[in-house]
Amino acid sequence: MADIVQTEFDAYRDSYVDTVEQSISFSGLSHGFFQQSKALMIRDLLAMRLADRPEPSLLDVGCGVGALHPLLSGLFGSIHGVDISGQSIERAKQDNPGNLYDAYDGKRLPFADNSFDMALSICVMHHVPVEQWTGFMAELARVVSPGGMVCLVEHNPANPGTRISVARCPFDADAVLLGPRKMRGYMRRAGLAEVATRNFVFFPTNRPAFRALERRLHWLPLGAQYAAIGRAR
Ligand SMILES: C[S@@+](CC[C@H](N)C(=O)[O-])C[C@H]1O[C@@H](n2cnc3c(N)ncnc32)[C@H](O)[C@@H]1O
User: In this structure, which residue's CA is closest to atom 20 in ligand 1?
Assistant: First the structure.
């Protein structure tokens, strides 16, 4: 199964962003808007959960072509991306020469325990075979140092717009979406503490007034996406 996913995303090395754009075009929103929403959410999470680590190291698991990484500039001391798609990793290297990237087998992350301040994984878990979800989460928890943060961003299956875009996206044909509650269960069973979810992308804009309102609505499980957060022990 992992080989099928790998081959599939290799084919999107040069068309990943355009393919996402086509899937969400019905909403009138751009891939850039969603990327900015994620970067703003990550900035909030760093302030809330990792303020004591001034230049945190980031591992982005399933980073794809690294499209988000330019928007994270200045937030992290270092960014290391890994993915099972070797072609996506080659593209990420080409576009982000200041970061580190590696392809891996999707099972065992090629890092020692406690190597990073934060592990991030955005819209990846729904591509991982369900029987590997427990191991996938355990690996994210393993490579983060005690007190550090694990964060997964996922599509919210309860949001109708999200369901439409997933149905329109060719590389989501095999996607198995999981909601915030199930996600929290996987995080707790991986030994993570202070597990929480924050919902976001409620509005079609990131203007400051709407962002402020969105922060207050984080508990409402109706945004297009959610971030699931846990603290490594
Ligand atoms: C929808 S893309 C998301 C890419 C990137 N995180 C983003 O938000 O732009 C899903 C990515 O997950 C990768 N992937 C799938 N299974 C994986 C696994 N077990 N470990 C790491 N990456 C995986 C795919 O190769 C693909 O690049």
Answer: 106
Average pLDDT of span 188-211: 94
Total structural domains within the chain: 1
How far does residue 209's CA lie from ligand 1's centre (Å)?
A: 32
What are 144's strand-pairing partners?
116
- Contact by Cβ (8 Å): 74, 42: no
User: What's the whole-model pTM score?
Assistant: 0.95
Cα 183 versus chain centre, distance: 13
Nearest alpha carbon to residue 211 among 219, 221, 223, 203: 203
Q: 5 in ligand 1 pocket by Cβ < 6 Å?
A: yes
Say what the pLDDT of residue 7 is.
Answer: 79
Residue nearest to atom 8 of ligand 1 (CA): 122
- Domain range spanning residue 159? 2-231
By most ligand atoms within 8 Å of CB, the mutation choice from 41, 124, 132, 142 for ligand 1 is: 124
120 CB less than 6 Å from ligand 1? no
Q: Please give the C-alpha separations between residue 79 and each of 35, 57, 61, 221, 222, in angstroms, as whole numbers.
A: 16, 6, 11, 30, 30
- Give, in degrees to the nearest 5, the angle at Cα 183 between 76 and 169: 80
Please list the residues that pair with 154 across neighbouring strands.
226
- Which residue has tokens 């149905």? 167
The CATH number of the domain where 104 resides is what?
3.40.50.150
Name the pLDDT band for 6 (thresholds 50, 70, 90).
low
Which residue has the CA at smallest separation from atom 23 of ligand 1?
62
Is 2 a residue whose pLDDT tops 50? no
